[in-house]
Amino acid sequence: MKNKNPIPVLKSNKKYILNELKKIVKSGNFIYRTFGTDIEAYLSNILINIFKKEGFIINAKDYYLAPDKNYFPDFELKMNPSVAIEYKAGNSSKLSKGKWTTCKNSNNDMGTLSKWPEKLKKFGGENIYYIFVIYNFNDRVKEILDVQIDAFYKFIGLNKDKLLKYREKDGNLRPRDFYEDPPIKTLNQFLNLFKETIAYRSKRIIKKHKLILKSLIQ
User: Fold this and answer.
1) Residue 94 belongs to a domain with what CATH number?
2) Is residue 137 part of a domain?
3) How far apart are CA 34 and CA 32, in angstroms?
4) Structural domain of residue 95, as residue ranges?
5) Where are the beta strands (DSSP E) in 53-189?
6) pTM over 0.85
7) pLDDT band at residue 1 under the 50/70/90 scheme
8) Which residues touch 68 (CB under 8 Å, ≥6 apart)?
9) How many domains does the chain have?
10) CA distance 158 to 175
11) What are the phi and psi torsion angles at 129 (to 5°)?
12) Rounded to an integer, what distance in angstroms lies between the CA atom of residue 11 and that of residue 36?
């Protein structure tokens, strides 16, 4: 079984994962501030059950769970090569100035520009997948809306300059809108945009630093 591809199995269980999460939310006492983190252990248990049933997991040596929130990935299926599965969760409701409003992007951290080369080297670009849970928590409801499963690059957004969407101060990549058609279709497209984005960000930072130095000298 280890020679087979687990990704089709994972994707085919999307509805099962969605239904299991709905049951968990209905029976649990979750809050919007910590739900994205709280749901991770439940997701891992669901994946373990799926992969055990399909023969990808025989014992505890066949997978590895992240020991803390800074570790990547959240779930590693030990194969040759191993498959990295990262969890993301976004709330379609946003609390702004004391009022709940609907939003289309939760601006999750999709990994920093400086860390992606290391991840790609370890797992390979086609072996990193995201499970993105879209939920709706506000003062009236607590519900799971959707579960999206795909290659990591299909969740990353583009900015107005048609480069990877990122936060300039730390280089954290940002996601596309929840139900937007993925603007990045292939790994090669991501890799090309990755190089262009790093160069673009570096030039912007250098320009800002030059302006700061100029003001200090004057």
Assistant:
1) 3.40.600
2) yes
3) 6
4) 6-217
5) 63-65, 75-77, 83-91, 93-96, 99-102, 128-137, 142-151, 166-167, 172-173
6) yes
7) low
8) none
9) 1
10) 8
11) -125, 150
12) 21
pLDDT at 3 over 60: no
Task: Decide if 1 is inside a domain.
Answer: no
131 vs 151: CA distance, rounded Å? 9
Residue 143 domain flag: yes
What is the torsion angle, in degrees rounded to the nearest 10, for the CA atoms of residue 159, residue 7, residue 30 and residue 32?
Answer: 0
Q: What's the one-letter identity of residue 53?
A: K
In a domain, 178, yes or no: yes
Asked if 110 and 156 touch (Cβ cutoff 8 Å), the reply is yes
Residue 209 has pLDDT above 90, yes or no: no
> Average pLDDT, whole number, for the chain?
93
The pLDDT tens digits for 161-205 are: 999 999 988 999 999 999 999 999 999 999 999 999 999 998 887
Q: Which of 136, 131, 135 is nearest to 148 (CA)?
A: 131
- The predicted pLDDT at position 147 comes to 98
Cα separation of 73 and 65, whole Å? 8
* 59/29: higher pLDDT: 59
Closest alpha carbon to 166 in 143, 194, 186, 187: 194
